[in-house]
Each structure stands twice: as C-alpha cells, then as structure tokens.
UniProtKB/TrEMBL annotation:
InterPro entries noted in UniProt: AAA+_ATPase, ABC_transp_ATP-bind, ABC_transporter-like_ATP-bd, ABC_transporter-like_CS, P-loop_NTPase
Protein name (database record): Oligopeptide transport ATP-binding protein OppF
Keywords per UniProt: ATP-binding, Nucleotide-binding, Transport
PANTHER family xref list: D,D-DIPEPTIDE TRANSPORT ATP-BINDING PROTEIN DDPF-RELATED, TRANSPORT ATP-BINDING PROTEIN
Domain ABC transporter: start-end pairs: 8-248
SMART domains linked: AAA
Organism: Microbacterium azadirachtae
Presence of keyword Nucleotide-binding: yes
Gene Ontology MF annotations: ATP binding; ATP hydrolysis activity
C-alpha cells in the first residue's frame, strides 16, 4: 500500500451481543482500505463478517477498538441524521427488501442517493444513468420494487448506493440475490466503478471465485478474528492458515461455487491460529 492515509482504518475492533454473558462476534479485528482498493472479507457463516460490516458503518456500537473514516471516528447511528460528509459511506445489503421502500418508485429511491451526493457538494447523474450502469433498462424508473425480480431489486439497491458518489462502499453479500450468470458481471461492474471513482470497498462474500476476480486483498475470518490476510494472488497460491487452505480446497471445479467449510471439530481453536509471515504483510 502507498504512504497515503487509508480511507478506512479499523483497529482492534470488538463487537459483542448480549448482556452479562455476552457473545463476542468480532474479536480484535484490524485492517485498512486505501482509495480505489477492494478488500474482500471471507469466512464461514457466523464468523463475524457482517458484524464487522455493521460496525464499520455505525449500525453496531463497538465494545472496543476504533473505526476511522478519513481519520474521523464513525459514530454509531442514532435518531439524529447522519452528518452529510458521512453519507460518502454507503452500504449494499444482502437482502434488497430490507433496504428498498416498497411504496416508492425506483427513480425516487435512486434520487435519494443523488441528494446525499449533492448535500456534500458532489455532482451526480440522473437515475436513468445509474440504472444503465448496473445493467438495467431506464424504463424501470417508474416501477415499484415489488414489480421487479429479486435480482433487479438488488441492482437498484446498488444503483442507489452508487448515485451517492461514495468513497467507501461496504457491500455485505451484495450479489447473492443474483443468478449465477449475473454475479460475476455485477461484481466486475462494482469493481470498475470503485476503481474509476477512487472509492474504497469492503466486499463480503462467500463466493470465492468472484472474490478472486475482483479483490485486491483478502482477509480470512475465523471465529471473530482475521487469521490470514494478504494480496489475493498470494493468498490463493500460498495459503498459510489451515482454514484458508480448507476453504480454498472446498471450491468445486469447474464452476467455482462452494460452501465455506467449518473448522474440524477435532481440532482446538488455538491450533488454528498462526502468525502471518511478514512476507504477506509486505504485499499489501
């Protein structure tokens, strides 16, 4: 990475749920993301990926650690409106039904993103432009979300986020609602727009074949911790951690679709934690 300060800096992040007997979903996670860079966070279901993403955008209050967006702490969301400058952080959720208003037409929802950009003094394009950018026809502008397929709704959600002209995109399984033929193209489109605009992206996905194609770096999570990270080609070719090797071995061929494996029950968690060589850190 360059000497330029990262867009996102996460240091020793801890997220817990519950009261006295709290469950620690994220246990001391640290990473940076530079402008124009895609960092993929991968791991089995329940390992803490989504909790990390929600803490990054302020939807979860960290128990400890810090999340800095351009050197400014990201405050947990409350009843107050988010400061205009923090609308440059946009999230794309896994389920578009949870983020789109069923009573508002598509064009109006994308225009909400455009208003966020203009509030920061940033020019943006019309809703029809962003529909075309995500591979949809501008004729869908006047439809309601319930009149669209699941894949179309997710593309609208992506279009709304992009219309805000973000410089940090947090994408939590953003392509899982799409059919297999569209996943790679939409992921590629998100990467191209990210690189072209200089935005940083935290991309969470279980589809390792897509991650390999679009991510500059990969961070592997296991039981709330990042156990291995590095440049994507290096992690693929020379996995150091046993869990990384196991999940890569689980990708069937030739279609590249697979389920992330759980850790072997016979092995103690401590045996799955190893120090990452400095060689991997140098390629970040």
């Amino acid at each position: 990475m360059s000497d330029q300060k990262p867009v996102l800096h996460v240091d020793s992040l801890v997220v817990e749920y519950g009261g006295r007997a709290a469950f620690r979903a994220v246990d001391g996670v640290s990473f940076d993301i530079a402008a124009g860079e895609v960092l993929a966070l991968v791991g089995e279901s329940g390992c803490g990926k989504s909790s990390t993403a929600r803490a990054v955008i302020g939807m979860e209050k960290p128990r400890a650690g810090e999340v800095l967006y351009r050197d400014r702490p990201v405050q947990p969301l409350g009843m107050r409106t988010r400061p205009a400058e923090l609308t440059a952080i946009q999230m794309v959720f896994q389920d578009p039904n949870s983020s789109l208003n069923p009573r508002i037409r598509v064009a109006q929802q994308i225009a909400e993103g455009s208003r966020a950009a203009r509030a920061r003094g940033v020019d943006t394009e019309a809703p029809s432009h962003w529909l075309k950018a995500v591979g949809l026809s501008a004729t869908l502008e006047n439809r309601y979300p319930y009149q669209l397929s699941g894949g179309q709704r997710q593309r609208v959600a992506i279009a709304r986020a992009l219309a805000a002209k973000p410089d940090l995109i947090v994408a939590d399984e953003p392509i899982s609602a799409l059919d297999a033929s569209a996943q790679a193209s939409v992921a590629g489109m998100m990467r191209e727009l990210c690189v072209a605009s200089g935005a940083a992206m935290l991309f969470i996905s279980h589809d390792l074949s897509v991650v390999r194609l679009m991510a500059d770096r990969v961070a592997v999570m296991y039981r709330g911790r990042i156990v291995e990270s590095g440049a994507t080609p290096v992690v693929w070719a020379q996995p150091v951690h046993p869990y990384t090797a196991a999940l890569l071995d689980a990708i069937p061929h030739p279609d590249g679709e697979g389920v992330l494996p759980a850790a072997p029950a016979s092995e103690a968690p401590s045996s799955w934690r190893v120090d990452i060589p400095e060689a991997l850190d140098r390629v970040r």
